[in-house]
Amino acid sequence: MPDDPDVTAPPEKSAISRIFINVAWLMGGKGFAAICSVIYLALMARGLGVKGFGHFSLIAGTGQALSAIAGFQTWRVVVRYGVEYVHHAQWDKFGRLVAICAIMDVVGAIGTCALAAILIYGFADALDLNPAYIDLAFYYCVASAWTLNSAMTGVLRTLDRFEAIAILEAIPLFGRLVAALIVWWIGPTVAGFLIGWALASLIGAALFWVEAWRRAPQALTLANLVGWRCGLQENPGIWRFLWVTYSGSTIDAATKQGPLLAVGALAGTRSAGLFRMASQLAQSLSKLSTTITRAVYPELARARVTADFVDFRRLAIRLSLMAGGAGLVVVLVALLFGRQILGLIGGDGFGNGAAVLVPLTIAASFDLASLAFEPVLHSTGHARLSLAARIAAVVVLGIGLFALAGHGATGAAWAVMISGLVCYVMMGAMALWALRHKVPVAPDDILEQGLSTGE
């Protein structure tokens, strides 16, 4: 029986051309998403004011942090192990791999709900949350926990279906915009905006599952779900890789959401609102980093399977140079137009956030400039090195937040910038070492060698 054309391996193209095509699809979605984001951010900021927006930011930030801490970046596992299965059309093995990752997503969601109950009902005062919002914050965190699409995103990335990802990622953002407009018309409230966000995210996650099944029906079957245990033997080292990526995502959550929660606890809700607004804009300016990383990760994993090591090294270096130039552009935009952008979107009350925006944008540019470092380390069997760099960065962040606590949101922003610099330097040095000294190994041995030896 011939394979479904939707699940056959993509035709051969150069890695760079595939990356540009994938980035083009993702940036199309991100461009639309950016427009939606700016509009609903402006509606919330102007409708709620600095303090109300601060409450919204603390609740949303808590939900994002808990989902990242208790969840797993299973898409990386699907891509890392699934590329070879797709390349050889081994759909049963691919399906069992996806089943393992989907089960881990569910485990993460349950863990998120448990953590939310402990944090929201036990430490709401420390976050400076209004008592009237405590129940709402818990329900929002529970809803966020069940926006499970990581494994299904991995399926679409492995199949090179970036055009589908672009559309699917735009849907919840468009939903947030529609919800924001409705809430604005009815009367802007923190509860209204949070409910709109949660519903849009849940719908978007459900559509990812539907699309993944539609694209790979031969793999995503009940038989493969029931036989997920066989996948553990078929994918040696999967648990170690899963835990390494989990640790990295947890640290990443601490780096991205920790400063916001620290500002709320140390400087109050208004400062948290200013920090969130500046952080949102900095992240918007650096969306290119996340977008390209999502396109780069499968290509570097594929290159380690299909290309010789010299070509793999050349690809990684070219990507790093391209990303460094993009990072400089991001910083210049923040320096020249940061205050005007903040004032235009949030109103006069947010104009003072320019002092927060600049260091956060510099930190985001470090993320952008280092977009190829982590995929290189993962693909060459040195996942633990990227984890070590992130651990060092989060330690520096904690020290910086403590040392600069008296400077409020601005101090927290500079702590984030210093932490980003440390991560960039360390991970860059490690990736350079891996590219210079890595001895090519068989694809199946990459993680086994790198993780078991601790290199």
TrEMBL record:
<keyword id="KW-1003">Cell membrane</keyword>
<feature type="transmembrane region" description="Helical">
    <location>
        <begin position="166"/>
        <end position="186"/>
    </location>
</feature>
<feature type="transmembrane region" description="Helical">
    <location>
        <begin position="97"/>
        <end position="124"/>
    </location>
</feature>
<feature type="transmembrane region" description="Helical">
    <location>
        <begin position="192"/>
        <end position="210"/>
    </location>
</feature>
<protein>
    <submittedName>
        <fullName>Teichoic acid transporter</fullName>
    </submittedName>
</protein>
<dbReference type="InterPro" id="IPR050833">
    <property type="entry name" value="Poly_Biosynth_Transport"/>
</dbReference>
<feature type="transmembrane region" description="Helical">
    <location>
        <begin position="20"/>
        <end position="43"/>
    </location>
</feature>
<dbReference type="InterPro" id="IPR002797">
    <property type="entry name" value="Polysacc_synth"/>
</dbReference>
<feature type="transmembrane region" description="Helical">
    <location>
        <begin position="319"/>
        <end position="342"/>
    </location>
</feature>
<keyword id="KW-1133">Transmembrane helix</keyword>
<keyword id="KW-0472">Membrane</keyword>
<keyword id="KW-0812">Transmembrane</keyword>
<feature type="transmembrane region" description="Helical">
    <location>
        <begin position="412"/>
        <end position="435"/>
    </location>
</feature>
<feature type="transmembrane region" description="Helical">
    <location>
        <begin position="385"/>
        <end position="406"/>
    </location>
</feature>
<dbReference type="GO" id="GO:0005886">
    <property type="term" value="C:plasma membrane"/>
</dbReference>
<dbReference type="Pfam" id="PF01943">
    <property type="entry name" value="Polysacc_synt"/>
</dbReference>
<feature type="transmembrane region" description="Helical">
    <location>
        <begin position="354"/>
        <end position="373"/>
    </location>
</feature>
<feature type="transmembrane region" description="Helical">
    <location>
        <begin position="136"/>
        <end position="159"/>
    </location>
</feature>
